[in-house]
């Protein structure tokens, strides 16, 4: 059942704002330590603190809703991580959230579900942790999925300005409720503005964005696709779901995320927040074969490969060039 989701949006906005505040405080510290997870990817005090804060707020308002979040407290519970956990506790306490180490691990693990449910939240407490560590773009991404459809979505982007080319206010919150448009408001508060994708219908001036890390999206292949489409501008590389944000605002027209290795499945928390914001702004999101993303398999997009995001008007042409370029690459490898 879908609805107006007034309470969900209010609770989620408050949670994302508090989480963004913690992330900003940690990023402003002179050194941000990180732990390496099992897959060797980094995780910081801010990732854990952000997940703790958001799960705590969701627990209070919607105790029955499962949360499929990126982090869990396993790494925090080792003896070596004790000082790290203490820092998470300190950061939370600075914003008036006092909890024991057990409380904090409990909040984080509220987000530990990996199983599909008819109603659940998905959370990336810091998307683009590598960007966060470099002092560049990152996003707090939260979405509510009901019967497999994203109904509420939020992207908190503390380092993204409200207008292109670093103009306007630094730090924005983008959000959407299905059927109610996409909106942007400064993280510090103010009047929300409705946002729309670009109306570009041709490729010569199109602006394409992609991941900074070449391990997350195939840069060579996207360059060949851009060439084939007649795109003249160089790609803009930025971390995190800020890429969805810039397409939703019309600052970019296309976001390509092309698989770098065959076995990788995209994680739902890397996309859910961004997808609805773009769709409600008039854009379109599919995988690299043109299939809609399916959020019904638990924590991964099991039946999808990569992601193509556009302003809608350019979508079909981009998908067909990506399909061609992938086929050509495959033929060459044989
Ligand atoms: N192989 C591979 N392919 C695709 N995606 C991957 C891969 N490995 C990791 N990840 C996920 O990439 C997330 C960050 O994506 P970004 O687009 O922000 O990357 S980048 O920082 O711009 O390079 C990152 O999210 P965070 O961990 O939240 O930062 C990962 O979930
Ligand atoms: Mg990560
Ligand atoms: Mg992520
Ligand atoms: Mg993350």
UniProtKB/TrEMBL annotation:
Listed SUPFAM superfamilies: Carbohydrate phosphatase
InterPro entries with a match to the protein in the record: DPNP, Inositol_monoP_metal-BS, Inositol_monoP_superfamily, Inositol_monophosphatase-like, Inositol_monophosphatase_CS
Reaction it catalyzes: adenosine 3',5'-bisphosphate + H2O = AMP + phosphate; 3'-phosphoadenylyl sulfate + H2O = adenosine 5'-phosphosulfate + phosphate; adenosine 2',5'-bisphosphate + H2O = AMP + phosphate
Required co-factors: Mg(2+)
Any Gene Ontology biological process: sulfate assimilation
Binding sites annotated in the UniProt record for Mg(2+): 70, 124, 126-127, 270
GO molecular function: 3'(2'),5'-bisphosphate nucleotidase activity; metal ion binding
Keyword vocabulary terms for this entry: Hydrolase, Magnesium, Metal-binding
EC number: 3.1.3.7
Keyword flag Protease: no
UniProt family annotation: Belongs to the inositol monophosphatase superfamily.
UniProt-recorded name of the protein: 3'(2'),5'-bisphosphate nucleotidase
Organism of provenance: Polystyrenella longa
């Amino acid at each position: 059942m879908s609805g107006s989701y007034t309470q969900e949006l209010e609770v989620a906005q408050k949670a994302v704002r508090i989480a963004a505040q913690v992330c900003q405080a940690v990023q402003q510290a002179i050194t941000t330590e990180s732990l390496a997870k099992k897959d060797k990817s980094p995780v910081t005090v801010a990732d854990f603190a952000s997940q703790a804060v958001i799960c705590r707020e969701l627990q209070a308002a919607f105790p029955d809703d499962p949360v499929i979040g990126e982090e869990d407290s396993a790494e925090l519970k080792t003896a070596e991580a004790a000082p790290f956990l203490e820092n998470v506790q300190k950061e939370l306490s600075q914003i008036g959230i006092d909890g024991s180490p057990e409380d904090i691990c409990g909040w984080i693990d509220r987000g530990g579900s990996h199983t599909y449910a008819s109603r659940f939240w998905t959370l990336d407490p810091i998307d683009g942790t590598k960007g966060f560590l470099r002092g560049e773009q990152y996003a707090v991404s939260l979405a509510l999925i009901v019967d497999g459809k994203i109904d509420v979505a939020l992207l908190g982007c503390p380092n993204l300005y409200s207008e292109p080319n670093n103009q306007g206010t630094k730090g924005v919150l983008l959000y959407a409720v299905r059927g109610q448009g996409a909106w942007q408001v400064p993280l510090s508060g103010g009047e929300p503005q409705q946002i729309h994708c670009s109306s570009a219908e041709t490729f010569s001036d199109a602006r394409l964005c992609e991941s900074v890390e070449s391990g997350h999206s195939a840069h060579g292949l996207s360059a060949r696709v851009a060439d084939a489409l007649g795109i003249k501008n160089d790609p803009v590389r930025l971390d995190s779901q800020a890429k969805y944000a810039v397409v939703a605002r019309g600052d970019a027209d296309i976001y390509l995320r092309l698989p770098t290795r065959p076995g990788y499945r995209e994680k739902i928390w890397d996309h859910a927040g961004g997808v609805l914001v773009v769709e409600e702004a008039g854009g379109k999101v599919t995988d690299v074969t043109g299939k809609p993303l399916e959020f019904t398999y638990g924590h991964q997009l099991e039946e999808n490969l990569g992601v193509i995001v556009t302003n809608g008007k350019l979508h079909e042409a981009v998908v067909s060039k990506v399909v061609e370029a992938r086929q050509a690459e495959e033929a060459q490898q044989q």
